[in-house]
Design brief:
single chain; alpha+beta; Glutaredoxin; six-stranded mixed β-sheet; 6 strands; disordered N terminus
Length: about 140
């Protein structure tokens, strides 16, 4: 599996909270964002398939799921700020121009995990369940 933990990077450093910023979700929701280009469309579809029917898991872990394909931004689960911009999300999360990237953003707004391949939700849940706030029950 091509994923790795990143040192926490606060997304809001230098980014003002606005209607279209993920900063609006800080301390309320974790965000699973996956970004794909035309070349990563099959990976994006596979990631969506891993999430389909798992609404209960997503809600239990306070997850918002956002898919960005090209310039199209779709909220697949949870709540999200209005007017999200594909370009702004790419900048905010520093995903670069890979064909597919999934990013997990914690309640504190920091990037907790990233993958360049679609990942089953159980593996993502394991990352969340190992987080100190989750283990301490402080995220409910």
């Amino acid at each position: 599996m091509d994923f790795h933990l990143l040192a926490p990077v606060l997304l809001a450093s230098g980014v003002a909270a606005s209607a279209g910023s993920l900063d609006a979700l800080r301390w309320e929701n974790r965000v699973l964002l996956f970004v794909s280009s035309e070349g990563g469309a099959a990976d994006a579809e596979r990631q969506e398939a891993f999430l389909r029917g798992r609404e209960r898991d997503l809600a239990e872990r306070q997850m918002t799921v956002i898919a960005v394909r090209g310039q199209d931004v779709r909220v697949l689960a949870g709540k999200a700020p209005r007017d999200l911009s594909a370009d702004a999300l790419r900048r905010e999360t520093r995903v670069g121009d890979a064909p597919f990237v999934a990013v997990l953003i914690g309640l504190d707004g920091g990037v907790k995990w990233t993958s360049r391949t679609p990942t089953p939700l159980d593996e993502i849940n394991a990352v969340i369940d190992a987080m100190p706030m989750r283990r301490a029950g402080l995220d409910r």
